[in-house]
Design goal:
Radius of gyration of chain A: 25 Å
Oligomer: homodimer
CATH topology of the largest domain in chain A: Rossmann fold
Number of domains of chain A: 3
Largest interface: A-B, 61 and 61 residues
Largest sheet of chain A: 11 strands, mixed
């Protein structure tokens, strides 16, 4: 019998406690599957006294993460503290340098220092596994790194933040405002007291940076990502999307283009019949477009103690079975420094919602500026205004702006921005235009 | 530089040719990802002369599969001939016995001889990989074997046959009969000239047997599967499903019950909002219910040369990287001989469509026999008959049977069968009752 794999666990929050519980529950199954047991031997966390609903007395308590990381007894350091810098960073680096494999759920750490840590893991011939950092229990890291290792990827996109998808789902189903849904999400514990990190797209961006690196063999580069959150989305956008056969999702999208790797996070119109459009509530999903085959979509729980623990334990299982894969699927020396495809050069269709000033010549002005940028329109929808059956340009009504919705054929970000600037300048629209990019499958 | 992994490839149909092409296309990427090249060195197939659109002259031609399987030069034998018996079986066994790893797409072989071959692989310390045998490019084998290795599974179910899903999709969208859609599927090459293997559920059953083994650590046992195909499904069933918030899919379902592992293949009513219900056309999908976490669903192309080749090459990538996992995720000695949960004891909701004879007392008789079996009804729908606004039991109309649709609460297969038998015996319904099992999420 091979000796058990000995774990040092740093961080005993919801996820840490769930990992301990899952390892207990699945002890014999894991031992059978992996050919050896997996045992927590030592732990550390901010507070030793906090009640966590698990018996910690059987584990050796180590004073700090860094000491645990280099502890003689452990084979693997499991980092569940979070945070892109110390103590997580130095503890993980210390563990790798000491020849310990590392399992982490820390997306911020990987987005920031992933390449350096991967190089360190490689140098010391140990594993650095992070299935839990993206998409919770969805085995997306393994799928990109191993399951589709024989494919060239064209595009990868996903719903990577459950809070945003929960808010958009409720906004759509109940015609509620963003603010009302956010409040509810906070009350239910789906959103943090400071929700900006989630709703402004930064959480999605960190995860996207990791996925893009895995998919395209490029160095993780969160700075290259264009980021836009969901706070500007209004119920009328969701209604219009439904009318036009779309649904709005906050997507992280990475695409291989001739100009480099385009990485962007923004509210996106996706065709309603796609797998990703069907994903509602806090659920996450990732779609992978590989050359020559139809898209593959993975859907599942993206957060929560049990889902995250599932990913951590499968990473431990790989280490127990003796598997060591290059952290980003390629030797770090082979990871390319990806060119950032500038957002202005993004090509695609656009949804534009304008509040058109109600006077003769408004439509002509809008049409002229779009034409000047060579933007063709796929649909124009003039929504009913107030309670009158059809808004139109009724000369008897007060000059209240009427919502106009435009769907463009493929154009560039630059062209759209220019056209809208010109339209705004001419004073034919009120307020800021709403702009949502369309992602076709 | 490590020497390349040398492949002997038996079977040069659509999949074999796609594997050769993919290995060519991704040569440098694979070498970088795996740390060594992957090279086909020798091949065999039924006909040497057939044109396949690939250059075979660079490969050594070996007279037969068995000789290739034990060829000195090769490290891995790739079996793409198909068929559950010889020559595939003896060639795979010979390769394993000779210490060669094997990659196969042969679901029939694995369903029939999977355990014996896995034991042989284990004994000779080589890999037996078969990602391509189930779900095409969807990495479902790896996900069950490794990606969710830390989880206990409760249930696994999926759309595993593209032909059936294509037929059901067209029947639903165009209100066509099964026969008309089958004909079209044959014309388009989605269905074989002899379609029984697909439409009667046998293809799904072979794949389910493999998935059930992976999920529950049990010996593959296709005999334990209850199998029912889609040929009895009528457009009115699909309409009724839509009215009631369901969609009909041919599912393979494996569930852990107190009575053993229940394995069944049959048309199934799935709630319309589930991920699996959204899967249309030839696409495949598998949903995994693991203890303590929300379901995970994998969706993607389930057949075709490129999709299958993608799975074969990822299996080769694992071998090139030196990974050897127990073929069914557990040492074969630990695979349990699963008790077969008898179908009569299946518990769940049922959709029942009856052609009720139009005379007083019909409903009373139906209700009485259901009550006698303690079956409670969730919904009763009496569809409009002919062109009259409401069928009802109009005394002026001829005594033409009226369709009645019943949705039961959870009951047992046995109770439903008994009740229907009694109802039929009493002569209050015409023809055979339609029965579709409901799978809740």
């Amino acid at each position: 019998m091979v000796a058990p794999l000995k774990i040092g666990l740093a961080g005993l929050g919801t996820v840490g406690a769930s990992v301990v519980r899952l390892l207990d529950q699945e002890r014999s199954v894991l031992a059978a599957r992996c050919g050896r047991g997996i045992e927590v031997v030592a732990v550390t966390a901010r507070s030793r006294k906090k009640s966590r609903g698990i018996d910690l007395s059987r584990f050796r308590w180590v004073a700090d993460a860094r000491s645990l990381a280099t502890d003689r007894e452990i084979d693997v350091f499991v980092e569940l503290m979070g945070g892109e810098d110390d103590p997580a960073k130095s503890a993980v680096a210390a563990a790798l340098a000491a020849g310990k494999s590392v399992v982490t759920a820390n997306k911020a750490l990987l987005a920031r220092h992933g390449v350096a840590l991967a190089a360190l893991a490689e140098k010391n011939r140990v594993a650095l596994n992070f299935e839990a950092a993206v998409g919770g229990a969805i085995p997306i890291v393994k799928t990109l790194r191993e399951g589709l290792a024989g494919n060239s990827f064209v595009r990868i996109y996903g719903i990577l933040n459950g809070t945003c998808n929960y808010i958009l789902t409720r906004m759509e189903r109940e015609r509620l405002s963003f603010a009302a849904c956010l409040k509810d999400a906070q009350r239910l514990g789906y959103a943090e007291a400071d929700p900006a990190f989630d709703v402004e797209g930064h959480d999605t961006a960190q995860k996207l940076a990791i996925l893009a690196s895995l998919a395209f063999g490029a160095k993780v580069n969160p700075e290259a990502i264009y980021v836009e959150g969901i706070s500007s989305i209004a119920p009328e956008d969701l209604d219009a999307a439904a009318d036009l056969g779309y649904r709005v999702k906050l997507l992280g999208v990475a695409v291989k283009t001739k100009k480099g790797i385009e990485q962007r996070v923004h509210p996106t119109m996706v065709p309603r019949e796609t797998a990703i459009a069907q994903v509602m509530g806090v659920t996450n999903a990732v779609t992978i477009d590989a050359e020559g085959i139809n898209p593959i979509t993975l859907v599942g729980p993206g957060a929560g103690g049990a889902a995250t623990a599932s990913a951590v334990v499968s990473d431990l299982g790989d280490i127990a079975r003796g598997v060591r894969t290059a952290p980003f699927g390629w030797p770090t020396a082979r990871l390319s420094t990806s060119r950032k495809a500038p957002m202005q050069r993004h090509e695609g269709g656009y949804y534009i919602r304008l509040a058109a000033v109600d006077r003769p010549g408004t439509f002509a002005a809008i049409a002229k500026h779009l034409a000047a940028q060579k933007i063709s329109l796929e649909s124009i929808v003039q929504h009913r205004r107030d309670d009158r059956p059809h808004g139109g340009e009724d000369p008897r009504s007060p000059a209240k702006p009427a919502p106009v919705i435009l769907i463009t054929y493929a154009t560039t970000e630059d062209a759209v921005r220019r056209a809208l600037k010109a339209i705004q300048k001419q004073g034919v629209i009120a307020g800021k235009p709403q702009l949502i990019r369309i992602e076709k499958n």
